[in-house]
């Protein structure tokens, strides 16, 4: 029996992950109290989970409840843990994995500042029109566009604007909701 | 009915209303109003510690031995940071604590004021929940909610950070009822799903090679859970093993007891886990000291898992029947459902399984070679066990961390829950001495022994002074091998016996040290004199530091090296682990 004994070189066993990571959108309903965001985000960092996008705002003023939307990349096993760990936090009411629960609506808003003159300005406006982006500020040398849509659409718009004088971008992060009559 | 008082008075009042009789603490500038309020009452006894880490471990020992919540009071800044180790320890081992930390006045928060630290930030990840109370109106609710959160569901430590101005402020004290507490989101599930319990019992009724794998959750669920476990074990006739944290929930004197499982568990317990067809996990969390290599962990079994924390389920090992709920309630339901389906233990069906287990038992995996010239650590614990049993007192054991802890788990036997206090999850050296002080505070007439290592005990040695001050007759039983034995063993196993800093140099003379503190010191290095020396320790009515000079290089066996399956356990007779690994190690140099 002891012939098998090999130094493992570690106090722990090491396993390699066999499942593939998937991108999921979670929505978390919390009490809006000091430190609640730190608790949620701290859970992700402490346990080594990723956050790709994060959106937070109070959505029920009378009950002081906020809704946090988190996009994360993880294997199904880790996703199940993330959900249970989030539910374990005292100020967390509900956690829904929107991706797992079927098709949901996902929207993001971005503001883009594009600076340029001459031909580029015409092209910029033409593309903005095609993407239904609004001009919310204009000067003789710049535009600020507001665009709403799925993150992929915004990514695409940003890519197209890059060579046309894109100066800066700000994105809200994802807001997501399920389709159909049921609430959270 | 609201009553007007200061924040500091509210603290005392809310503690009293929650049945608190003892509090472990250390004063400082920011905590003075609470100390002043404490001075003017006599319902709560304050135990003055020597270091705030000591206060947290005392509160842990107090909590684990009584089932009540342990309470700690410390000042801001260094008081709070010194408490962090104990808070983390309590979180890992699911121990209910309420820790009140004082804070600088609200108008100074964030200004790097004297003895300011971000206590809620620092303790966020080592508490079950924490609060910074900035308004006196919130204080009564927070104080009561803290006790609820600490003691219900999966227990854990809760910190309440109270700025000094809030301690001085006048406000209305009231006792909120649970329903009006702030966090409607916090509602632990107590009752298991009946369908799942039925399915579990059906699985048990078809089992041929079953095993109960019980853990700290049974202790957390109170003595009723241990009782229900005993009943279910008797009803089924199944073998029972337990983790380090669950020792005592099932009586070690019962023939169905297999001993502890895991890295330093018995051969029979580990092989039963490996070969079983139905595993019934009651309040244990598939810790890595138990599972070893996950892909080789109990490959052929179907698994039932009872746990109050949904995030424990499928965290490490996927199970077939999860049951979320309190162990006591689920066990009682299991007993009821089992009775409704059968009134026979499965004696005949599992007879071949018991035969197999008896073969494994015959290996005698806890055996060791005794000596007439040096005291073997296992022998010392065996003698301590016999002598303390003969005292006819209630016996409580705490430990430090290392080989001595494992030997204590293997060779000291427990028939009752709440008698065994050890740092399992965090493995905090320095836990045992203060924990023993906390236990003795709760049980003044009991025999309380810290089974210690000479390295660990020096981490919180100063708490012997607390024991002397409060006349707490704790016994510190130091297995002195002049080594950090557990580290030395791993260096033999994994690092070619290169003993990098794993020996205890310049040790104090423990007898003189004890005397300097006003305690009694005893020393023994002769096996023939050991019984008499133990008697001397037990007979002394006061704290004793007993320096037991033991074999220096004894290995703690059996052992499943990490990363190995249960059936690759190293047994005492065959294992000269030093020489096996030495050769490989030499090639590596
Ligand atoms: C040097 C060293 C060596 C060690 N070697 C071993 C070893 O060989 N064997 C061993 O067993 N351990 C060993 N340990 C301890 C190990 O690290 C873990 O602490 C221990 O195994 C965990 O025990 P547990 O699974 O019972 O869980 P615990 O940490 O006690 O957790 C309890 C579980 O029960 C649940 N629970 C809590 N309350 C309730 C309730 N009321 N109802 C239902 N469920 C509840 C919790 O959610 C949790 O999942 C060692 C530690 C050290 C320091
Ligand atoms: C605070 C802390 N630091 C370091 C460790 C790592 N460690 C685990 S066991 C051990 C040695 C303990 O030595 P001793 O108390 O003499 O006990 P023995 O193993 O010799 O019985 C060490 C250093 C720990 N568990 N806790």
Automatic annotation (TrEMBL), chain A:
Residues 25-100 form the ACT domain. InterPro entries: Acetalactate_synth_ssu, Acetolactate_synth/TF_NikR_C, Acetolactate_synth_ssu_C, ACT-like_dom_sf, ACT_dom, AHAS_ACT, AHAS_small-like_ACT. GO terms for molecular function: acetolactate synthase activity; acetolactate synthase regulator activity. Pathway: Amino-acid biosynthesis; L-isoleucine biosynthesis; L-isoleucine from 2-oxobutanoate: step 1/4; Amino-acid biosynthesis; L-valine biosynthesis; L-valine from pyruvate: step 1/4. It comes from the Bacteria. GO terms for cellular component: cytosol. The keyword Transferase applies. It catalyses: 2 pyruvate + H(+) = (2S)-2-acetolactate + CO2. The keyword Transferase applies. It is an enzyme of class 2 (transferase). CDD domains: ACT_AHAS. Gene3D superfamilies: 3.30.70.260, ACT-like. Chain A, domain 2 (3.30.70.1150). SUPFAM superfamilies: ACT-like. Its EC number is 2.2.1.6. It holds the Pfam family ALS_ss_C. Keywords: Amino-acid biosynthesis, Branched-chain amino acid biosynthesis, Transferase. One of its GO terms (biological process) is L-valine biosynthetic process. Dimer of large and small chains. Catalyzes the conversion of 2 pyruvate molecules into acetolactate in the first common step of the biosynthetic pathway of the branched-amino acids such as leucine, isoleucine, and valine. This is Acetolactate synthase small subunit. It comes from Pelagibacterium luteolum.
UniProtKB/TrEMBL annotation, chain B:
It catalyses: 2 pyruvate + H(+) = (2S)-2-acetolactate + CO2. One of its GO terms (molecular function) is thiamine pyrophosphate binding. GO terms for biological process: isoleucine biosynthetic process; L-valine biosynthetic process. It is an enzyme of class 2 (transferase). Its cofactor is thiamine diphosphate; Mg(2+). It comes from the Bacteria. Its EC number is 2.2.1.6. Residues 401-548 form the Thiamine pyrophosphate enzyme TPP-binding domain. CDD domains: TPP_AHAS, TPP_PYR_POX_like. Binds 1 thiamine pyrophosphate per subunit. Binds 1 Mg(2+) ion per subunit. Keywords: Amino-acid biosynthesis, Branched-chain amino acid biosynthesis, FAD, Flavoprotein, Magnesium, Metal-binding, Thiamine pyrophosphate, Transferase. Residues 5-121 form the Thiamine pyrophosphate enzyme N-terminal TPP-binding domain. One of its GO terms (cellular component) is acetolactate synthase complex. InterPro entries: Acetolactate_synth_lsu (IPR012846), AHAS_TPP (IPR039368), DHS-like_NAD/FAD-binding_dom (IPR029035), THDP-binding (IPR029061), Thiamin_PyroP_enz_cen_dom (IPR012000), Thiamin_PyroP_enz_TPP-bd_dom (IPR012001), TPP_enz (IPR045229), TPP_enzyme_TPP-bd (IPR011766). Coiled coil: none annotated. Pathway: Amino-acid biosynthesis; L-isoleucine biosynthesis; L-isoleucine from 2-oxobutanoate: step 1/4; Amino-acid biosynthesis; L-valine biosynthesis; L-valine from pyruvate: step 1/4. Belongs to the TPP enzyme family. PANTHER family: ACETOLACTATE SYNTHASE CATALYTIC SUBUNIT, MITOCHONDRIAL (PTHR18968:SF13), THIAMINE PYROPHOSPHATE ENZYMES (PTHR18968). This is Acetolactate synthase. It comes from Pelagibacterium luteolum. The lineage of its organism: Bacteria, Pseudomonadati, Pseudomonadota, Alphaproteobacteria, Hyphomicrobiales.
């Amino acid at each position: 029996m002891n012939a098998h004994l090999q130094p493992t070189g570690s106090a722990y066993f090491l396993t390699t992950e066999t499942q593939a990571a998937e991108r999921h959108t979670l929505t978390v309903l919390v009490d809006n109290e000091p430190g609640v965001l730190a608790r949620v985000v701290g859970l992700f960092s402490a346990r080594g989970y990723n956050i790709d996008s994060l959106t937070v705002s109070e959505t029920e003023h009378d009950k002081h409840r906020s809704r946090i939307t988190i996009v994360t990349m993880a294997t199904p096993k880790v996703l199940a843990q993330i959900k249970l760990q989030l539910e374990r936090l005292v100020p967390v009411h509900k956690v829904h994995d929107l991706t797992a629960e079927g098709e949901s609506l996902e929207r993001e808003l971005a503001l883009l500042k594009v600076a340029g003159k001459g031909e580029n300005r015409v092209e910029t406006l033409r593309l903005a029109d095609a993407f239904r982006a609004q001009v919310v500020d204009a000067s003789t040398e710049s535009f600020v566009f507001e665009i709403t849509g799925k993150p992929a659409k915004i990514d695409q718009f940003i890519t197209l604007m890059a060579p046309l004088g894109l100066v800066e971008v700000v994105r809200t992060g994802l807001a997501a909701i399920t389709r159909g009559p049921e609430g959270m | 009915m609201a009553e007007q008082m200061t924040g500091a008075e509210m603290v005392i009042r809310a503690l009293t209303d929650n049945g608190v009789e003892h509090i472990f603490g250390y004063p400082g500038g920011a905590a003075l109003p609470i100390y002043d309020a404490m001075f003017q009452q006599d319902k709560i006894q304050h135990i003055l510690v020597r270091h705030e880490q000591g206060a947290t471990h005392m509160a842990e020992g107090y909590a684990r031995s009584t089932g009540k919540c342990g309470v700690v009071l410390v000042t801001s800044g260094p008081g709070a940071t010194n408490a962090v180790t104990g808070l983390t320890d309590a979180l890992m081992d699911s121990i209910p604590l309420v820790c009140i930390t004082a804070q600088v006045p609200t108008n100074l928060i964030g200004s790097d004021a004297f003895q300011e630290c971000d206590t809620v930030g620092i303790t966020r990840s080592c508490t079950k929940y924490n609060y910074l109370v900035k308004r006196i109106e919130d204080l009564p609710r927070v104080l009561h909610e803290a006790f609820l959160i600490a003691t219900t569901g999966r227990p854990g430590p809760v910190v309440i950070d109270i700025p000094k101005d809030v301690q001085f402020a006048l406000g209305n004290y009231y006792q909120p009822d649970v329903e009006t507490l702030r966090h409607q989101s916090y509602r632990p599930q107590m009752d298991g799903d009946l369908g799942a319990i039925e399915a579990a019992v059906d699985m048990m009724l078809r089992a041929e090679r079953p095993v109960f794998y019980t853990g700290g959750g049974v202790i957390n669920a109170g003595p009723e859970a241990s009782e229900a476990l005993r009943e279910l074990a008797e009803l089924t006739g199944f073998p029972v093993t337990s983790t380090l944290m669950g020792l005592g929930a099932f009586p070690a004197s019962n023939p169905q007891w297999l001993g502890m499982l895991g890295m330093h568990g018995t051969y029979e317990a580990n092989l039963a886990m490996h070969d079983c067809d139905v595993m019934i996990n009651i309040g244990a969390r598939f810790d890595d000291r138990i599972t070893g290599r996950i892909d080789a962990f109990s490959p052929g079994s179907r698994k039932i898992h009872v746990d109050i924390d949904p995030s424990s389920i499928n965290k490490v090992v996927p199970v077939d029947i999860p049951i979320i709920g309190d162990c006591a309630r689920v066990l009682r339901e299991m007993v009821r459902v089992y009775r409704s389906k059968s009134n026979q233990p499965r004696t005949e069906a599992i007879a071949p399984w018991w035969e197999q287990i008896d073969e494994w038992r015959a290996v005698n995996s806890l055996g060791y070679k005794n000596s007439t010239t040096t005291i073997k650590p296992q022998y010392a614990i065996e003698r301590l066990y016999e002598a303390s049993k003969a005292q006819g007192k209630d016996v409580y054991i705490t430990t430090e961390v290392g080989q001595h802890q494992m030997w204590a788990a293997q060779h000291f036997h427990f028939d009752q829950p709440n008698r065994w206090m050890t740092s399992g999850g965090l493995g905090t050296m320095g836990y045992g001495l203060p924990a023993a002080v906390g236990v003795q505070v709760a049980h003044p007439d009991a025999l309380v022994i810290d089974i210690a290592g000479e390295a660990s005990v020096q981490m919180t040695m100063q708490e012997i002074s607390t024991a002397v001050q409060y006349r707490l007759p704790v016994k510190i039983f130091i297995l002195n091998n002049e080594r950090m034995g557990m580290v030395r063993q791993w260096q033999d196993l994994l690092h070619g016996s290169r003993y990098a800093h794993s020996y205890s140099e310049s040790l104090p003379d423990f007898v003189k040290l004890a005397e300097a503190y006003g305690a009694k010191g005893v020393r023994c290095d002769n096996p023939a004199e050991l019984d008499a020396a133990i008697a001397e320790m037990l007979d002394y009515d006061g704290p004793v530091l007993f320096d037991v000079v033991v074999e220096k290089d004894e290995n703690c066996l059996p052992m499943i090296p990490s990363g190995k399956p249960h059936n690759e356990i190293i047994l005492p007779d065959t294992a000269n682990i030093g020489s096996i690994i030495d050769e490989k190690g030499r090639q590596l140099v």
